[in-house]
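ugh finaly. both done.
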Amino acid sequence: MTATTDTFVRDRLPPSEHLPTLLLDRPEQQWPAQLNLVDWLFARARAQGHTDRPLLRSDERTLSYAEAQAEVQRMSHWLVHTHRLQPGHRVLLRGGNSVAMALCWLAVVRCGAITVATMPLLRAKELLTILDKAQPQLALCDARLTEELDLAIAQHGQALPRVAFHSSADDGLEAALARTPADADTPAHVGDATDIAMMAFTSGTTGAPKAALHSHRDIAAACEAWPRHVLRASPHDVVVGSPPLAFTFGLGGLLVFPMWAGASVYFPSAPYTPESLVRTIGRVGATICYTAPTFYRQMAPFARELGVGQLRTTVSAGEGLPDATRQLWKEASGIEMLDGIGATEMFHIFISSPPESVKRGAIGQVVPGYEARIVGDNGQELPRGTVGRLAVRGPTGCKYLADERQTRYVQNGWNFPGDAFLQDEDGYFFYQARTDDMIITAGYNVAGPEVEASLLLHPAVAECGVVGRPDEERGMVVVAYVVLKPGHTPGAATAQALQDHVKHDLAPYKYPRDVRFVAQLPRTETGKLQRFALRQMVQTTP
């Protein structure tokens, strides 16, 4: 395919001195200079004889690898010839987990364009920030989620074509593809292996989203790390799970890694509840499940009552896995949890151990292909058993789009995910805490300052501070300390009003489940909020 390459993202990559050191010396990490991730995945499936095996499943349809490839090729043709999509263009994707969302992601990357997948729960204000930073040329959106996106596009002030899928309209994606010949195909764009394939937004401690960039080679390299050495999926596996495809945890677990293994993925018609996920596991014969610790804890009673069918591997990530939750799930299902820690900036899991190598209380050992160590404030490696900052490097690493925070995440070639750990003499890593102000609740990242900014828009709020409180069910709960303006009365009704306000302003999972009214907030002499003091308060008055 001959096309002009848009250099918007390439021009905004970090300078070479601020890029992470990549470890690509293992035999499985030898990559050609040119690569298209989607072309490589489908070619791998053909070479291994998976052409007629199922890939994408739902209650409405099942697509084999060959059928999915044909759909992706037809959509790629439509993107290039109707929307003039060029390599390097950004395409915003908005939708829950579905066969259509998966096909859209694959088609965009096959064209050499860059996916910008967004969480279904995001509101217009959050989407506007992403539009401003990513500057997409096209949006593909589930017809049920267009309202907030259209509001964001209107506020963005720049024309952005938006096509709806799961739509019966004449201008919807399904109708457009129906008008495209079934055998239509534009060859995959095979560019440099280091060309960017995806932009994944993750919130920082200031609430300003960061765009983490991953190349075709990065994602392929991730397939040859944790999936090869720890997960060890097979073509006979059926994969289910709740993480959104807009998260790298969900994208890897529920699309890219199954394709690499020749396995299949089942997508539900509605978001999972703990009960429906357990029932689905039995109904579709699922063998691998991905979700967060909170969900496993809520699933345990149903697993005990209904059984888990053919399930053999359960993967937990997205937040710390309490040992009590691991044991509860094992007692209910008979399955030892496969824990792991990863990062959007690293694409996926880099510390994890297979079930036969689990050590109680530990997340696991470093995944083959990666290196990890615990360091002090000046970067020196600390003795085993000492708490310090986690530093990691491997075949993937952090590349932010035009963001000064790159120099904090990557130092001397090492990636610093912002977690405090200790490592024991056997090489197992034990999670201690976040080293920043991020609150991880039920697998979602919530930046305290972002919630504070939302609360301050309410007419009753004079001041506020937001921190996390440890919680057995959700890992952490968002807690808001609020100083009210004169004339407003603290109490349940006011707390509910503030919660409703945040739910309307931000993604609902960010609202403070615990609102505490105080006369004043702890501040420094210069007026800065002392969040560490709030964290001490929440520990002493749970």
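ok and the 2nd:
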Amino acid sequence: MQSYIDRKIFIISLIAFIGLVFILRLFYIQVVNTSYRVTAENNSTRYEVVYPGRGLIYDRNGKLMVYNAATYDLLYIPRKTKEFDTVLFASYLNIELTALKKLMQSIESNKYNRYKPNILISGISTETYALLQDRLYKFKGFYTQLRTQRMYSQRMGSHIFGYVGEVDSSDIKTDSYYNQGDFLGKSGVEKSYEPILRGRKGVTIYMVDVLGNVKGRYKSGAVDIDAASGTDITLSIDLELQQYAELLFRNKIGSVVAIEPATGEILALVSSPGYDPNLLVGRERAKNYNKLLLNDSIRPLFNRAVMAQYPPGSTFKVINALIGLQENVITTSTSFVCNHGYSAGSFRMGCHHTGTINFMYSIAGSCNAYYANVFRRILDKPGQKSIYPNYNTWYKHVTSFGLGKRLNSDVPGELRGLVPDSSYFDKKYGGRNRWKSLFVVSMAIGQGELGTTPLQMANMTATIANRGYYYTPHLLKSIEGTDTIPSNFKVKHTTNIERQYFDVVVDGMEQVVLSGTAVMAQVPGIAVCGKTGTAQNPHGDDHSIFVAFAPKDNPKIVIAVYVENAGFGSTWASPIASLMMEKYLTDTITRPLLEQRIVEGNLIDKIFNKKAQGGKAN
């Protein structure tokens, strides 16, 4: 009997103990630990992302250039779908039936997608949305969400603005802000200022039943997160000047960069051929991008202004003139004899001049022989056995103009160009002291190993216009609600060339336009200073180059122009720069015949017709 009572007490105690454990565990789950409650709530709620509108983009005069238009995503919840007329649905969406089925199957292949909304089609236009919305009740498991897409007030500025595209896996890994289906700036200022322009996503939380049907707002919307629109920005671009520059470059290959020298603000930036930026928005974006990408003959996606590396040609002579003066190897009274070129032993560099050439005319007339002599004097100073110290000094002077290095502009994709240091030639010629000044004398006239981008050439010219300093070229002028811009754009970069030498070189550049190789660049009533160049091109006709600024004193605009396969700088590049300066400074054009010749000039057809015949263009 006693053993029976003991067993009964034991069993009752065990049951009581187990009950107490369960009670304590339930208390912990429901009261102490909130993670289980959150999990339960997640199973009965649906989170809908609210996408913000991106910040607007204005030009320096407050003109709207980039804005947003409403677009929609079609979302798909496989678990809620019932049998429907797929042919009719595809016709509403203006999509092939096979494409629609393929998109649906791609989502259905992942079992985790069956109970949540998935983006089936993004970028549905307002017209398609209007047609679809009244009929969507027929198609269970599908619904829409609002988004915005970029629109452009003009068909220009593609390499400035860039484009917005869907994130990929690397974007998501780099920044946890992004999820699959989000969009971000892929190039241009859309990329440079993505954190400013993108805004902040919001979230609306809905209560749903086990079948995913919406039953209302969770906690009446009290815990929803409002979306915050992106911040507007103002660019330094002058919209009218940009449009005019693109007009002048129609049917031409090349680029132009215009800068306000006092600030480094970029007034216009053209890479030609370009493309209509509206091509890379909406549902046709991927198809259009592939078309542009595959157009190898003219490469419209390639930003020549910051990525193409050309020899600077004779425009570089002004740099060697400044260095020669600073290093006291020449003065403004120095003259050299030119006999249709420069000769040293078996080496010969041709030139179109003959006779005694003085300093001022060496710039105005662009004498090759003069600068071959100057360059060799810089490197071969009397009494020195090695050219290394002098070459390194020359190298430091050149790079102080922003050449041979990235300027760290806010134009993505910028390349550094090439100004070779002494180690470059050590490697090329097999060791130290195995190369001499004559080996590299082609750099005296901007040829040889030198490579520069149009942005660098514009910046170099801005340094001359400022008489010895530059600010990093940039596109951002201001951010909404603040007067600040990145601090690196406010840093003054100076050369160690004395001011007096810039003054005399600027006088020579004025003579280039008044009586030298660029008389077509004259602008009535405005003192223009410039330098022509013709860059040798082993793949076709030479490139036409011109750099300039105006007015001579207190300059307001600097321009660098490259026209590929166009011959002499005076033929195409200098008239383009001249017309742009007149347009910007006077808001008028007084030389309509010159403008007509440039606008109607079709160099693309000329280039490709000649290539088809297996030769150079004339």
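summary for the 2nd one i guess: The domain at 46-235 is CATH 3.90.1310.10 (Penicillin-binding protein 2a (Domain 2)).
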